[in-house]
Amino acid sequence: MSENQPTGHELRHRTPRERAERGKSARTAVPRSAHAEFSPPPKRTDPVDVIEAQSAKRLPELVPIRYGRMSQSPFRFYRGAAAIMAADLAETPRTGIRVQCCGDAHLLNFRLLASPERRLMFDINDFDETHPGPWEWDVKRLAASLVIAGRANGFSAKERASVVRTGVQSYRERMREFAGMGNLQVWYTRFEADELQKAFAPHLDADTRRRWDVTREKARSNDTLQVFDKLTHIVGGERRIADDPPLLVRLESLLPKAQSGALETEISRLVERYSQSLQSDRRFLLETYRVADVARKVVGVGSVGTRCWIVLLLGKDDEDPLFLQAKEADESVLAPYAGACGFRTQGERVVAGQRLMQATSDIFLGWERTTGIDGRRRDFYVRQLRDMKGIAVTENMSPKRMSMFAWLCGATLARAHARSGDRIAIAAYLGGGDVFDRALATFAELYADQNEKDHQALLDAVEAGRVRAQAA
């Protein structure tokens, strides 16, 4: 069976029956129960070697912060270990049906986001690793993250299995719904926070409703003006980003004056050139702002060490801010196992994948390639630094609340895959029973075991002095 991803044009020439038969025939080659399997190969690469290979391309002074964050817990390790899991998933059974994968679909990459209409949406957030690939890989990464988070919260094996099955069942049932919809119906499907509140209200206790209300209100206030107040101050009568080393450092504090000036000029040019990747109206809006300051920011867990610049722009006056984040884009961790992405730059890969998978995207999302002060060309993608984002706090989740969150993540992932892949074939493969749900509950436990061993390998490497970890 070919693993080439059908384009929309190719799908147009296949009948629904032909697409359903493709999915059903995949069961013969890869039974749904086979997805329960996970056994590391005898010559599995040392997980610390995988992490170090990534770190070799990153800013060396920030790498210890990455190791420090990954050392904190098995779940934090998992968030930074997408490359390790990509290699492991490449050894697992594949149906041959491909979609645009997120590449890092753990549960904390699902959150509240703002639409251009200023409505809160629930969607996937992080697309650094997005790449065409087997749909199963995203579902398995989500399932394993639920078990790892459940273990951290002290859930029993039975409770963890129930959480995973709920998330996977949601993916399966929503995919079957999408298979029956028209193309535009699928494309326009979105999960708005207000509508979710209405749908979930009958199933929520008072405490959960309160937490949901707090999360929504916090997300609404977590906008550009809030970041502006938090991250900037007045210096010599001018608005500047406030240093908070090592996590946030202005260029003037980071480099000698000549180098910082040259880099700031290049980043300003990056902002100017990247606007060509925007719609014309959004490009016009961006051109009404001027660059006021630039700083390097440490973000996330797995991304620590990549070059990430935040750019303060000002509009009609010094109290009219726009914060952009220009983040380095390297090859997806899926690429060595899933084939080439077909884009000229890695920044364009990220942006194209995000636009395809998200129901609605940041109006300033775009890409550009630029040359650093070391003379090397690097790819970047650009988006707003923070725009009404709300992230779940898994440590506060009971089994019931995590099950509900898993349901929402599964439905959201199904919608993203239905937009980019053969939803009819995937739905036909999954079927109406719970065979796949139960298989992934088993897989997730096995992979959580492996993740704990890999986390311990990092701790051992830190203790032995092989790598250095820094708390930050």
Describe this structure in words.
The chain has 472 residues and is an alpha+beta fold. The protein has 2 domains: 8-221 and 393-463, no CATH class; 224-384, no CATH class. The chain is built from 20 helices and 12 strands. A hairpin with a 6-residue loop joins β9 (308-314) and β10. The radius of gyration is 22 Å and the shape is globular.
Task: Please specify the SSE layout and strand pairing.
Layout lengths: L7 H5 L3 H14 L17 H9 L7 H9 L2 H6 L2 H8 L8 E4 L8 E5 L5 E5 L6 E4 H18 L4 H23 L3 H6 L4 H8 L5 H16 L2 H8 E4 L2 E4 L6 E3 H4 L2 H18 L5 H7 L3 E8 L10 E7 L6 E8 L6 H4 L7 H12 L8 E6 L5 E8 L14 H22 L2 H8 L4 H29 L9
Antiparallel strand pairs: 1-4, 2-3, 5-6, 7-8, 8-9, 9-10, 10-12, 11-12
Q: Which features would summarize this protein structure in a list?
A:
472 residues; alpha+beta; 2 domains; six-stranded antiparallel sheet; 20 helices; 12 strands
Outline of this structure?
With 472 residues, the chain is an alpha+beta fold.
Strand order of the largest sheet: 7-8-9-10-12-11
Q: Strand pairing plus helix content: what structural class? A: alpha+beta
The general outline is globular
The major sheet is characterized as:
6 strands, antiparallel
